[in-house]
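Each letter names a residue; structure tokens follow underneath. Both lines appear below:
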Amino acid sequence: MHRRRSSSERDRIGHIIKVTDIVLEGLGVPRYSSVRNNRLYDEHPKISLLILKQYLDVSYRELCSVLGSLKI
């Protein structure tokens, strides 16, 4: 059974995602990895999700459950 995330956990996760995006922007990490990219998915959310996965110490499947339970 999955436990509900408290609002403080949601705030912390949201903060991590926002700070990651700001840092990546500041470092000049390009949004798209290739000029031939179809611009459907950019790199910043992918990196944010990897950082969040490591921070929460969960598997990809558990990360999907966590993000699905956020109700943002």
